[in-house]
Amino acid sequence: MAKPATPICALCERPMVSEKHGVYVLLMAGMPPIIYEVYHSDKFRCATCGNEVLSGYANDPSIVHFHEDADEQVARILALPRDAYVYVFESEEGKNVFHRNHFGLERSC
User: Fold this and answer.
1) How crowded is residue 102: how many other Cβ atoms within 10 Å of its Cβ?
2) Which 3 state secondary structure label does DSSP give 71?
3) Rounded distance, CA 88 to CA 103, Å?
4) 8 A C-beta contact, residue 40 and residue 23
5) Distances in Å between the alpha carbon of 33 and those of 6, 15, 43, 95?
6) Could you give the CA distance from residue 42 to residue 17 in angstroms, rounded to a whole number?
7) Which residue, among 84, 90, 107, has the nearest Cα to 35 in the 3D structure?
């Protein structure tokens, strides 16, 4: 058997299926959190249990906060449907502060 080309669901012990290519990963840093870097990745889903993961990240970020046009590029991403990007926070506190400030609520897994 060849090495798996996609992530494996640890719960179901089955290869995951590609759900969506080109999902933006917005790495948040600082307090209050700001978008620090943006990477491209792919979303995979377990056909058995529905678990989802992001994998296949680019080696380098496509956007870094100090780039001249970073704010414009991030604004274009945030205008996309919500399933086109995912926030990644350094801490649970940072996630709660961000969601409280932007959406008026705390968000848990």
Assistant:
1) 11
2) helix
3) 16
4) yes
5) 31, 34, 24, 8
6) 10
7) 90
Q: What is the pLDDT along the chain (109 residues), one digit of tens a residue?
A: 667 678 999 999 999 999 999 999 999 988 888 899 999 999 999 999 999 999 988 888 999 988 899 999 999 999 999 889 989 898 888 888 888 887 766 555 5
Among residues 97, 96, 100, the alpha carbon closest in space to that of 109 is found at 96
| Locus of tokens 């801490």 | 91
Tokens read off for 84: 């086109």
Reported residue count of the chain is 109
Locate 25 and state its tokens.
């990963």
Prediction pTM value: 0.81
Structure tokens at 35: 């978008």
As given in the structure block, the two tokens for residue 51 are 């678990």
Cβ neighbours of residue 103 closer than 8 Å, sequence gap 6 or more: none
